[in-house]
Give the backbone structure.
Amino acid sequence: MRTKIVLRSGKDQSLRRYHPWVFSGAIKKIYGPLSEGDVVDVEDNKGEFLGMGHYAPGSIAIRIISFSRVDADRDFWKQRFVAAYLMRKEMKLAGNPETNAWRLVYGEGDLLPGLIIDYYAGMLVMQFHSVGMYRQRERFAELLREIMGDEIIGIYDKSAATLPFKADIKPRDEWLYGKKQKEAEVLEYGNHFLVNWTEGQKTGFFLDQRENRKLIRRLSKGKEVLNLFGYTGGFSVYALRGGASHVDTVDSSRKAIDLSKINAEINFGKDAPHRGIVADAFDYLEKSGNNYDLIILDPPAFAKHNNVLPNALQGYKRLNEKAFRKIRPGGIIMTFSCSQVVSRENFRKSVFVAAANAGREVKILFQLSQPPDHPVNIFHPEGEYLKGLVLRVG
């Protein structure tokens, strides 16, 4: 019999609206033994069943895996993975000869909270964000092999840095199946990228910017382009593909910049009009001249928690103001926030203040988000973390 968790009066409304999180402050009483990662039943103060999920001793105390009372057995999980895989096939990602890098599982968006899985040319890279899901890793690897068959050549668990610090386990990055290969050349809309999932950030590449990179290709012809926080040069390769006259990729990581140079070379040869620069993005922008027609601002998350939100909004304002002061008249700025706690409205306000302070005329051409392999559960708006604006600056 599963442990039962009863909520305080009035704290059941979010679950009735199918939001998949229960916060610790909503819990009134716990009936039964409880360890991190256990599956628990959640009831309201009158004993009505609301859902079942994985328990964790943190702010998000329960991540709901089902709003019905079911057995979380092999068939239950298999149905969830099949649904996620079929949706990627419907979106023309799985099996696409021009693109063999995409997200297979996106947490709550695929009703698999606490789990991220990315696909790179046959390699699955898994990241667990909850102990409840982590305990299932061997079963999940077996199910994915059963569902995807020869499409998988290896499965790598990269969860050492993603499991919550409260977890009383010592996870390590390890191979769960198949070929022990640390990197591969992948395709994205026919562009080649060398991805290293064992040493790279996140799972190795930022798949969430795929459609936005495609847009850069349309906007880059004949332009001098600056790709700030450029990582391994994803946007840079698309800008070159679109006919940019020159592209500078700037990142503070030497390894990332070295990979950006490799990516430019494998697509366009040694004479590609590309330069990789190891530098702090803020400092580089401050010291650069008015040399660019197109500037891409894709910084890491400035805020991961609400308590640092004001500082994050100041950071976005400062960064964008510098870019507005540097961009040539008629130029384009593509600017992003990947901070979940920064709302679309707050991000836009920060950019608005930056434009006003810089005294530039600014028009919004496109409003951007994440691609369909990062689906947003309509009952879980927190899943929409990526916000972007494409701006024409007069």
Q: What stands out?
A: DSSP finds ten helices and 20 strands in the chain. The two ends are 66 Å apart (CA to CA).
